Every structure is written in C-alpha cells, then in structure tokens.
TrEMBL record:
Domain spans labelled 3'-5' exoribonuclease Rv2179c-like: 82-169
Descriptive protein name: 3'-5' exoribonuclease Rv2179c-like domain-containing protein
Organism of origin: Streptomyces qinglanensis
Gene3D superfamilies the UniProt entry points to: Ribonuclease H-like superfamily/Ribonuclease H (3.30.420.10)
Source superkingdom: Bacteria
Pfam families found in the cross-reference section: Rv2179c-like
Signal peptide residue numbers: none
Transmembrane regions listed in the UniProt entry: none
InterPro entries (UniProt xref): RNaseH_sf, Rv2179c-like
Molecular function per GO: nucleic acid binding
Amino acid sequence: MTGIDYDLEFLEDGRTIELISIGMVCDDGREYYAANRDMPVRKIRRHQWLMENVVPHLPKGHGDLRNSMSKRWLFHYGDPRVKSRATIADEVAAFIQATEDVELWANYGAYDHVCLAQLWGTMMALPDGVPMFTNDIQQEARRLGIAWDELPQQESGEHNALADARHNQIIRRWLAQRA
Ligand SMILES: [Mg+2]
C-alpha cells in the first residue's frame, strides 16, 4: 500500500462543498498543491473565518508578481499554483493514478473526500484508481486509544492545505509505528 495524505480547504454552507485549495503528499515523495481559480470569491469574502484563517495562505505570487497583486484579490490570478478546477481535476487524478494500490488519508476527512470526489462529478464518475473512500487519522487514533493531544503538534501553516497534508502524513506515520 502507498499512502497519500491530503487536505482540502473549502467553503461549505450546509448544502454544498466548494473547493478553495488542495494539498497532497505521497509516500513516494511527490507533493501537489493548487488553489482553485474558480473558487466562489464573493461568498468567501462574506465568510469571516475563511477570510482570517484560509485566505492568508492562498498563493500571492513571489517577487515582482507579488507586487502586482491587486489589493482586492484573495489570491494572485497569475500565480502558477492557481489553476482552473478542470485542470486541478486532471492533475489530481494523475497524481493519484501514478501509484498503484493507493490509500487516501485525511483528518476529519468526510467532507474532504466528498469535495475531492466531486472534482470529477458524481460517484459514478470517479476515475479508475481513485479509492472510493478516505481513511481518517482521527479514526486510527481512536482505534489505538490515543488522545489527539498526545500526537505530534503542527508547528505552523495550519489551514495551508499543503502544510496540513504534510502534518497529516506525520500523524499517520506516527500512529502506524504504534499500531
Ligand atoms: Mg486544512
């Protein structure tokens, strides 16, 4: 089995889950990060928690690019990490399909799994090689009788999808040593 730990930032309103950004790390060392240029910007602006916790981590470009960013933007439209939802769907499928016998892992991952799977449409449209469920490090910790505050703590970057995915991998591997 090869593990892929991932994390999504998203906007959910009790009916829909809309992708903001995605981070994935694979046991073979590959990493992926993208922010969705089609994210619902107007709704996000009205969401205080997202504005305070998630938007500060979105790609703003580097150097001259950063200086060219409009103050009104939540992210830099010219940053190469900002991609259309369709491009993200293709790239994420390829990232997962590049390894055989893959396990997906996330933290409180139910919403992450739905938002991930909806990149490709309905459940029926899930690409070959993409697992139909995501394992949850919360469940694994519970199974092993380990409280969350006994686990390694995330030093920085919380709510940056890639930083969160990397931390999930640390937790999953730490738990596996104790299983
Ligand atoms: Mg996160």
